[in-house]
Design brief:
Blueprint: H1 2-12, H2 17-24, H3 28-35, H4 44-54, H5 58-63, H6 66-69, H7 76-87, H8 92-109
């Protein structure tokens, strides 16, 4: 399943196997073995690199595109906040860092 999703996303973006491997900093042979389902359990680090270049959430690679299209658990205010963050230029990485900082801060206050 993961290999199929990686290949689908790669082709959707018009990237060759070589281009994706080079841009993500992974071995072309390993990427090929993932796409052909010879290797079926890639590391989260590998998935992070690939998802970054493909500009898709890791969940898309794990579960398919439908997994990230289900926003039923979010109310309109959350969706608008995310849209505002994107429009303001906040990157996904900056947003992740903010969340991690808040978790750390909470742990410091309530060990």
């Amino acid at each position: 399943m993961i290999g199929k999703q990686v290949k689908k996303c790669r082709l959707d973006r018009g990237l060759s196997l070589s281009e994706l491997a080079e841009n993500a900093g992974v071995a072309k042979s390993y990427l090929s073995s993932i796409e052909r389902n010879i290797q079926s359990n890639p590391s989260i680090h590998f998935l992070e690199k690939i998802s970054l270049i493909l500009n898709v959430p890791i969940e898309t690679l794990l579960y398919g595109s439908d997994a990230t299209n289900d926003l039923s658990g979010l109310d309109k205010e959350w969706i608008q906040l995310v849209k505002n963050a994107i429009e303001s230029g906040i990157s996904k990485e900056q947003f992740r860092e903010y969340i991690e900082f808040n978790r750390w801060k909470k742990e410091q206050l309530h060990p």
